[in-house]
Each structure stands twice: as structure tokens, then as C-alpha cells.
Design goal:
Elements: E1 2-7, E2 16-19, E3 22-24, E4 26-27, E5 30-31, H1 35-46, E6 53-57, H2 70-84, E7 103-107, H3 112-117, H4 120-136, E8 143-146, H5 155-158, E9 164-168, H6 188-199, E10 204-208, H7 226-234, E11 239-244, H8 252-261
Parallel strand pairs: 1-6, 6-7, 7-8, 8-9, 9-10, 10-11
Antiparallel strand pairs: 1-2, 2-3, 4-5
Helix pairs in contact: 2-4, 7-8
Length: 263
């Protein structure tokens, strides 16, 4: 996962890209080029057989004013497709050069009214439509995922059919992954999302913060406690794994994997 496209349409009408330790913002209407990242993407795809998704949103989206209409949102989706989808003659701006991501992730943490006012739904549907048209024309498969907060059971999930949903069980005290004690065999919130995934024809992943500072409102689970907190999810039919962000975390994702396979 590459994160984030932090603003699709800022006050200057520009796209902002924030990749943490590799930080690029829009400049004069064009994002800074990142050919090295593009080369890394291709290496991950070919040598390491990884699927690379590009994520939109995140918590720091104050600069993103969204779109004023559905037509404007659709035009924005076409621009994103030209930037990160298959390279064509219309692709004048290519931050990752000729590298093509394998799909897109939507981490729009908007409440329902804001989601609607920014015309997120039209953007998501148009981007999905462009990807499906490319597939039909003989291109590779593109994947679409959502990363809702554990309380966010609204418009984001109804926009399209997602291949997977990465539910953030952190930074929300009401459905924090630690809400249930390790000794309990059932986690009601996991069960709720299992049903939501089933009704939407998808799979859900338990989202965990990769390090404590990524969960200022709670939800970080120390490595030695991962097995206990994840155990209630392991028997659920529509639970497909766990999601964790990278950072100064001493290979935390490997410890999550160990917890998942140690039934």
C-alpha cells in the first residue's frame, strides 16, 4: 500500500501527494516526479510478486475540499487514472513514470454528509469504471479496497463492490480492538464487520496500528498480546487477515502474521 494522495483537490485545484518520509506536494499544478518510487513499484510487482495499491485520504485531509459536482469528480477520477493507471498519450503527468499501480484504496474518513458534499461517491465509481473498462479491453486486473474506521458503516461501503475492506479498529474507543479482553472468545465488533463483509460480497481485514504513535486515541496492541486479541476473528468466515501500517515498528507486521497463523 502506498499512502497517501492526501488531497484530490486542494484550494488551488491541485492534487497533493504525501508519502511520509518521501514527501511531495503539488507544485504549479504538477506533483513532483518520483521515478525512483516508480522503479521500486515495478520491482515489488515483478521480483517480489506484490500487489501495489495507491491509497486516497488518511487522517490528514484538511486541505482536500473535494469536488463541487459529480461531473467535476468524474473529471478528477480521469486525471488520477491518467497519472497512475496505464500510460497513454493523454498521460502528461506521471509521478511514478511508467509504473502502473494494481489498484486503489479509499481511506476517506468523512462523515456521511461530508462524503456526499465532496462527491466522493462519483469519484470512486468513475475510477472503478475506468479500471473495469481497461480490464475488459485486455488489461490486468485492478483491485479496489476501502479502509473505513470501525464506526464508519456509511456511504463509503456502498459506492462500489470492493475486493477487500481494511477496517481500522483503532483511534476509536467505542470499537477499539482491545475493547474485549483477551480471555473472551467473541468480539462483537469483529462479528458485525463479518456480517457487513458478507452482505457486501467482500472480505474484511482487522486493521491495527503498526506503532503506538499511530494510535493517539488508542488501539495499539503490543506484540506479545496480538494472539489473544486477534483470536476471536480467526474463525469468522469473511475475515481474510490483518492490516498494519509500516513505521518505526521493529517489523511489527511479521509479528501480526505470526499471531494470525498460531491458532
Amino acid at each position: 500500500m502506498i499512502a497517501f494522495i492526501s488531497a484530490l483537490n486542494n484550494a488551488k485545484g491541485e492534487i497533493e501527494i504525501n508519502l511520509a518520509n518521501q514527501l511531495w506536494y503539488a507544485q504549479g499544478g504538477q506533483p513532483y516526479p518520483a521515478p525512483k518510487t516508480g522503479a521500486d513499484i515495478k520491482t515489488c510487482q515483478t521480483t517480489n510478486q506484490k500487489t501495489i495499491l495507491l491509497s486516497f485520504g488518511g487522517a490528514e485531509t484538511a486541505a482536500d475540499k473535494g469536488y463541487a459536482s459529480d461531473d467535476e469528480a468524474k473529471a478528477g477520477a480521469k486525471k488520477i487514472w491518467e497519472m497512475f493507471g496505464p500510460k497513454t498519450a493523454a498521460s502528461s503527468i506521471r509521478p511514478f513514470d511508467d509504473a502502473v499501480v494494481d489498484g486503489f484504496d479509499f481511506d476517506f474518513e468523512d462523515e456521511t454528509a461530508v462524503f456526499a458534499s465532496r462527491h466522493r461517491d462519483a469519484f470512486i465509481k468513475e475510477l472503478s469504471s475506468l479500471a473495469r473498462a481497461a480490464e475488459t479491453a485486455g488489461g490486468k486486473k485492478f483491485y479496489f479496497s476501502a479502509a473505513p474506521e470501525c464506526t464508519q458503516k456509511n456511504s463509503l461501503l456502498s459506492s462500489i463492490k470492493y475486493d477487500m475492506v481494511f477496517v481500522q479498529f483503532y483511534n476509536n474507543p467505542t470499537c477499539d480492538v482491545r475493547k474485549y479482553q483477551q480471555s473472551e472468545s467473541t468480539n462483537t465488533f469483529f462479528n458485525q464487520w463479518d456480517e457487513i463483509a458478507k452482505s457486501n460480497g467482500t472480505k474484511f481485514f482487522v486493521g491495527l496500528p503498526g506503532f503506538s504513535s499511530a494510535a493517539t486515541n488508542g488501539g495499539y496492541v503490543s506484540p506479545e498480546n496480538l494472539t489473544g486479541y486477534l483470536k476471536p476473528a480467526l474463525s469468522l468466515t469473511n475475515m481474510a487477515g490483518a492490516m498494519s501500517g509500516l513505521g518505526p515498528n521493529d517489523m511489527y507486521h511479521k509479528k501480526v502474521n505470526t499471531a494470525l497463523v498460531s491458532k
